[in-house]
Each structure stands twice: as structure tokens, then as C-alpha cells.
Amino acid sequence: MTAMRTKKAVGGLGVAALLLLGGCGQDGGQVASGDETDASQAQPGSGDDVQGADGDMQDVQLGDVAVSIPSSWVETPDDDLQDGDWTMGYDDAREEPAVRLRMAPAINDSPHPDVAEGELVARAMAGGYYGSDWEGVHREKTDIPGAFRGFVTDFTYVSSDGKDMNGRWWLMTSPDTYEVAALEVSGESDVLTEDLIEEISSSVRLEPQ
């Protein structure tokens, strides 16, 4: 996976980014509320075998954030995380991975996941980790098991070597600490399929240690 490696200061760009993203999401940019039938309510690892997954899943956890990923994925080298907030990651291959999952125990100081998401958007639009043409294509409040509040954003961008990329953020507020933890999966669109994203999404949850 190719990506720019410079983290830029974003200052007050978070609020502006939220305004710019007003056109994303459902119903003319309104943030939709999650419902009880959302995919995040499924049991971890309950999905059938999908492209990009071998059907054998492993549970991984950082702080309270837990998720199931394909068992063939390997831990991301620390030097490749490229952002101080993302403290653990997993790749679909040791060499030239096409998909990467990253985890952060806390993003921003706000207890509101949509505010934390605004900071991530600002970084993306400022050209940090992501390639060019970053765009948020869908964002909504959602129910995440174990979380006081949850928020999900789907996005696309183009890597520095011209590949179409897509991804998803999950942001979740702990009911105990009111800190917002984050989880991200991103990768080449022909490898990180919608089915694989949903397979991962069905297992995202907060599990206090």
C-alpha cells in the first residue's frame, strides 16, 4: 500500500472539515441515526467466507477496542503506522500489503465521536497519510456493541501510485472513560471489497479490559 508519510498540523480544520462533509451521508447530508438492525450488531466472526478473507478469523484488541480480522493478516511494523494516534495495525501481507487495519485507543479530547471524526477528516483533507482526492462518501451515527456512542465514515481516495482506494472509520465512545477510540480499515478497492468491510464491521466492539 502506497501512502504519503507526512503528518501535518491541522489546528482548527476539524470544524471546517465537518462543514465540508455536510454533503456526504444520507438524505442530502443529514447524519443518519443507527438502528438495531445495523451490521455492527452481528456476532463477531459470524459472516460467511468472503473475498479477501480466508474464513478463519482472529480476534485482536487494543485497549478496549476489539475486532475480528482474517487470521492470515500480520501485525504492521511500527514504522509504517505513520501517525502518532494509530498505535497498532494489521496488514494483509508482510510485503506490499493491499489492505491495512489501524487502531487507536483515543482520538481527540472530545467525548463525541463525530467531533473526533472531524479531526480525522481534517488530516485526510490536509493530505497526511492518504493519497490525493480523499472524499468522505457516507457518514452516520451507528450502534457499536459496548460503546456509549458510535460513528462510522466510509471514504475513498487515490494512492500516490494511482490506485483506487477505499476504507472505513469506526469511532466509539467508552461508557466508562468517555474517550473516543478509533478503528480504520483502508486498502485497494479491488481487494478491500464491500463484503470484506462488512465482515470486519460485524465484529467491531468495545470490550473493557
Write the topology of this structure:
Layout: H1 13-20, E1 57-62, E2 65-70, E3 74-75, E4 88-91, E5 99-104, H2 113-125, E6 132-141, E7 149-158, E8 164-173, E9 180-188, H3 194-201, E10 205-206
Antiparallel strand pairs: 1-2, 2-10, 3-4, 4-5, 5-9, 6-7, 7-8, 8-9
Helix pairs in contact: 1-2
Task: Walk me through what this model shows.
This protein is an alpha+beta fold and 209 residues long. Helix content is 14%, strand content 31%. The protein has three helices and ten strands, in the order αβββββαββββαβ. The strands form two sheets. A seven-stranded antiparallel beta sheet has the order 3-4-5-9-8-7-6, with helices on one face. β8 (164-173) and β9 (180-188) form a beta hairpin. The radius of gyration is 16 Å and the shape is globular. The relative contact order is 0.24.
Please count the helical segments.
Answer: 3
Order of helices and strands: HEEEEEHEEEEHE
Radius of gyration: 16 Å
Mean pLDDT: 78
| Structural class by secondary-structure content | alpha+beta
Outline type: globular
Uncertain spans: 2-54
Give the percentage of residues in beta strands: 25-35%
What characterizes the major β-sheet?
Answer: 7 strands, antiparallel
Helix content: 10-25%
> Could you give the distance between the termini?
32 Å
Number of strands: 10
Q: What's the arrangement of strands in the largest beta sheet?
A: 3-4-5-9-8-7-6
